[in-house]
Design a protein that fits this description.
Number of domains: 2
Order of helices and strands: HEHEHEHEHEHEHEHEH
Number of strands: 8
CATH superfamily of the largest domain: Rhodanese-like domain
Helix content: 25-40%
CATH architecture of the largest domain: 3-Layer(aba) Sandwich
CATH class of the largest domain: Alpha Beta
CATH topology of the largest domain: Oxidized Rhodanese, domain 1
Strand order of the largest sheet: 2-1-3-4
Length: 295
């Protein structure tokens, strides 16, 4: 009996222990320079870290939250590159992180060390109707990294997404626009459409054995411009590329479709092209996975 009473006392005392007080890092975020493709960071800005959770846990910018592009995309092949069909559910999730359509958001990532994940996540937010979104590599910020947990942000009211359908192109339209016209058929192709394949050169030429679509990707008449050419090493949009694009026959009044394997790098390039003034650019979010995986 004494043993039982002793155990009960221990359980009671352990339940009464005071949990340690959480300490939050209040160090402000500092930008090394004003960057054209990200908004000026203020207290209202929501910082999203699109890097893998392990890298985020090791160190991250103070106040940032870790979200992945996969968190907003479909899980079933061949639709992994497409957003979840319930956009309202995605908007509700964003609201829990303090994001509304008017909230300034900055997404940071790995830049050239990654696969354009920060650009894909920024593209996702813009598709869902978040108006002021920018992205760059985490190296663009001078603030010391921290392991501390960020203080929780106040949730925003639930909002209905106003989907920007101009940022993406559906498979049926994509296929129709890239088809070679048959004799007498004037509606099967739009000569003003340019397709840019942003995979690396080895993937494009079918020489990269690690790429799942390196040898199977069809010839759709795409121009190959590797995605890293659209950014510098810190993930900042390379505005100088705009002139080179025009020199090879890509004008700012043309419709441009961007494609890669899964719609990740192509999403980042879509936003980069729009910042350069190519406003009719859309991401084929399904990528070669959807193009080849659907009959």
């Amino acid at each position: 009996m004494k043993i039982i009473y002793g155990l009960l006392i221990l359980v009671f005392l352990s339940a009464c222990q005071i949990l340690p007080t959480k300490s939050y890092d209040a160090q402000p975020i500092q930008q090394k320079d004003l960057i054209s493709n990200i908004p000026v960071i203020t207290e209202q800005t929501v910082l999203i870290d699109a890097r893998p959770p392990f890298e985020f846990a090791l160190s991250h910018l103070n106040g940032s939250v870790n979200l992945r592009w996969e968190d907003f995309s479909q899980r079933t092949k061949p639709f992994n590159g497409l957003l979840e069909l319930d956009h309202f559910a995605l908007a509700r999730r964003l609201a829990t992180y303090g994001i509304s359509p008017t909230t300034p958001v900055v997404v940071v990532g790995r830049s050239w060390r990654g696969e354009g994940e920060e650009g894909r996540l920024a593209w996702t937010l813009k598709v869902l109707g978040v108006q002021n979104v920018g992205f760059a590599g985490i190296e663009s910020f001078s603030q010391a990294r921290t392991k501390n947990e960020a203080p929780p942000r106040k949730s925003e009211a639930i909002w209905k997404p106003q989907t920007d359908e101009t940022l993406t192109v559906e498979r049926d339209l994509f296929v129709k626009k890239i088809m070679k016209p048959s004799v007498g058929d004037t509606d099967s192709v739009n000569v003003s459409v340019k397709v840019i394949d942003v995979r690396n050169e080895a993937e494009y030429l079918g020489k990269d054995s690690s790429s799942p679509f390196s040898k199977s990707a069809p010839d759709i008449g795409a121009i190959n411009i590797p995605w890293i050419q659209f950014f510098d090493a810190k993930g900042i949009v390379n505005q100088k590329l705009a002139l080179k694009l025009q020199q090879i026959g890509i004008s700012k009044n043309q419709t441009i479709f961007v494609i890669d394997n899964f719609g990740i790098r192509s999403a980042a390039v879509t936003l980069a092209l729009r910042q350069m003034g190519f406003e009719k650019t859309a991401n084929f979010a399904g990528g070669y996975m959807e193009l080849l995986g659907r009959k």
